[in-house]
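User: Predict the full complex structure for these chains.
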Amino acid sequence: GQQVMQIPQYQHVQEGEDFTTYCNSSTTLSNIQWYKQRPGGHPVFLIQLVKSGEVKKQKRLTFQFGEAKKNSSLHITATQTTDVGTYFCAAPKLTDSWGKLQFGAGTQVVVTP
Amino acid sequence: KAGVTQTPRYLIKTRGQQVTLSCSPISGHRSVSWYQQTPGQGLQFLFEYFSETQRNKGNFPGRFSGRQFSNSRSEMNVSTLELGDSALYLCASGDPVVTKNIQYFGAGTRLSVL
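Assistant: Here is the predicted structure of the two-chain assembly.
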């Protein structure tokens, strides 16, 4: 069945550096979403990508959807301490109800000042 | 507009007991999904309700059940609690028309089973 794999599991970043987290699926996705969960918090929706090759930016965050719609990436430039948290990618299974999301394991980001 | 409200925020139960968690979705959202989050298993889908009907169910035992009311509020019940049920239970609301399949999460209920 569809699996959503996310790497790396942990990311230690020096403040000001850039980093990228990757999400890969075994099957073609209708769309992919990214969520951020701060320590002690709950997942908060960041963005949704729908089109093949789509690129969206939110300030220092750049999201990409692969041409084959099987992978996605989140790139953060000039990391700040406010970027601390776990970033999840999530996708609905094509064969399932839209309300069921399959989440990746998440990338836990720690920022060193 | 108020966000997703989950009650209670914290619960402590003992093995064998049962528990009911509540979720009030964002006004206008007809779908409520429930997830279990643990450090070892991550975010696992429990079930989804839309217009009072369960549309999808994850791979959890029958001890986990839920329902949705006509006002879209949802409850989740876990019977015969086990130590492994200790987790953060998250509710997410959405709507096929209003939000497509973007989900908005509540703050969660943290359940500890002793």
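The longest strand of chain B covers residues 42-50.
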